[in-house]
Structure formats: C-alpha cells, structure tokens
Design a protein that fits this description.
It comes from Clohesyomyces aquaticus. One of its GO terms (biological process) is glycoprotein metabolic process. This protein folds into two domains: 16-29 and 45-253, no CATH class; 255-298. It is 32% helix and 21% strand. It contains eight helices and 14 strands. The termini are far apart.
C-alpha cells in the first residue's frame, strides 16, 4: 500500500496535537564517579542488572519481580495501565517535568488516543536532564493517585536505575533507565532517557541505550495532545518516528494480536478466537496452580 493514500489519516491525527515550543535541555552532567568507571570494566552483566522480571517471555517479562503475584487478567491489565499512565502523566505535569509517550504507546495514541489493548507494558521517554533530575529528587518515591471520580486509589513507585550515568548500551543489562511501577501487581511503565551521546561527531542526534535514535527536529517542538484522557506530549514528527520503527503497515493494518479495529467505535475489539484462547490459557494456569498447591499439602 502507498502511504500517500493515508496522508489524510495522519493529518487528522495531527489535529489532536497542537505544536508547542519546548527545547531540549542541555547536557545533563550524568558522569560516573571514578569508582563506577572502574567497576564498568569488571562487573558481571547478570548480577549487575538492576531491574528484574520473573521471566523473559512476553508475559513474565513485563512485571517487576518485587511486586509480582501472578499474571493478571486482560481486564486487570487494562485497568492497571489506564490508571498507571494517567497517574504518571499527572505527576510529570504537576512537577513541570518533560516526558512524552513512545514506541507502542505512541502507536496507540495514533489510532485513538489510547493504549493498545494487547500491549504488555507502556513506554515513555524523557530528556537526559530530566532523567538526572528524577534520580536526584524522586528516586524510590511513592506516588499516591486518586482518579477523578474518586473511586480508584493506587500507589506507584518511581524507581530510577543507578546506572543512568551510563548513556551507551554497555552490557545491555540496564537499557531501561527508570520505571513507574504499580506496587499491587508489578506492571510498569518503562522510562528511557535520550541523550546527545556524541555531540562532536554526531550533533543533534539523541539516542537511548536500545539504539533508538532521533534528530532534534523529530522530537521538538513537542505537540500537546491527550492520551487516555490526560494531557500528554507527542514528538513533533510522530508519523516519521512510527514509520521508521514499525513501517507503514502499522498505521493501516486493522487486524492484529487477536483484535480487530472497529472504525465506527474507534476501538480495537478482541476477536472471539482470542477470547477463547485466553479462556483456555486461564484454565490451564488455574489447573497448574491447583496442582502446585496440592503438592505443597502432601
């Protein structure tokens, strides 16, 4: 399919976003102390990993092991992520800190201003300067959230990786710079910082530790929009960023991960086959859990 056919669709998405000036902040000062420079050359990659998950697949790889009590249902994940991103964006807005949604979360915004219902986690980005500030002032802080109707109350942990000073990939064990974690079940938002890592040889190119690179003009000036009912910032060249990361088909494909796009409702609807598949998986998990409990009582 020619992407030009869908230019009008992209333009309509842009109507959600008003351009605002928000220049990238300068160098962060994220430099390691001498002892960390020495440790970098001798550390054990596995032992030095800061964030840990209960497993490495699509499901278990998206929980913080400290707060994991089992895989949650589709409905609980939906509820958790909606309130989690609202709480996150509210915190950043109230404290005047820059952040914007990224990766699959940005793709969800493109479709209907909401998360993709099959996404296991949410993704945001911050500037290196903001990342530094979070580490100095908000690390290990608990944030209390109350929904607008007063019916939902949650606590979230903002946890900053102590290896944020390392702006290259390193051993690959600490590519996630921070997380916003629901301490009830361990689901989280991944927060990655963007830094101008080689200003002399590659100026105006900002990258994270997972090899995502953006030019200043791709990011700024940021656009103001709405995500899950809360004010959110969107990269200026969001269409370019999404196509480079997911290809054009991600902006037009209407069947994905057991969901169909309903244009009349502007929602992704779970297919009957997916409903039956999840019911079977839930039945198998319950059976396995019952067997494990039975073994404990023998």
């Amino acid at each position: 399919m020619k992407f030009s056919r869908y230019a009008s669709a992209i333009a309509s998405a842009a109507l959600l976003a008003a351009t605002v000036a928000s220049p990238i902040q300068g160098e962060t000062g994220l430099a390691p102390p001498d002892e960390k420079r020495e440790e970098e050359n001798t550390r054990d990659p596995v032992l030095n990993k800061y964030f840990h998950e209960p497993g490495g697949d699509d499901q278990l790889g998206h929980y913080d092991v400290r707060y994991f009590h089992g895989i949650v249902s589709y409905e609980e994940r939906t509820d958790t992520q909606r309130h989690m991103i609202r709480a996150y964006l509210k915190f950043f807005n109230e404290n005047g800190l820059d952040t914007w949604i990224a990766h699959g979360t940005l793709l969800g915004w493109w479709w209907n201003g909401k998360r993709l219902p099959w996404d296991w986690d949410l993704d945001t980005q911050v500037s290196g300067a903001t990342l530094d500030y979070l580490g100095q002032h908000f690390n290990q802080s608990i944030h209390h959230y109350v929904s607008e109707d007063g019916e939902t109350k949650r606590d979230f942990l903002l946890d900053v990786n102590p290896w944020i000073w390392e702006r290259e990939r390193g051993d690959g064990m600490n590519v996630i710079d921070a997380r916003w974690i629901d301490i009830r079940n361990g689901l989280f938002i991944d927060i990655t910082g963007l830094s101008e890592t080689h200003p002399d040889t590659n100026p105006a190119v900002w990258s994270c530790k997972n090899y995502h690179r953006y030019r200043t003009s791709d990011l700024y000036p940021m656009r103001e929009s709405i995500f899950e009912g809360v004010p959110a910032k969107i990269p200026y060249a969001y269409d370019k960023i999404l196509i480079e990361e997911y290809q054009e088909k991600a902006l037009v494909l209407t069947e994905y991960e057991g969901h169909d796009w309903d244009p009349s409702k502007k929602e992704w609807i779970k297919t009957q086959a997916q409903i039956e598949k999840e019911a079977k998986e839930e039945e198998e998990r319950a059976k396995k859990k019952a067997e494990e409990e039975a073994k404990k009582t023998e």
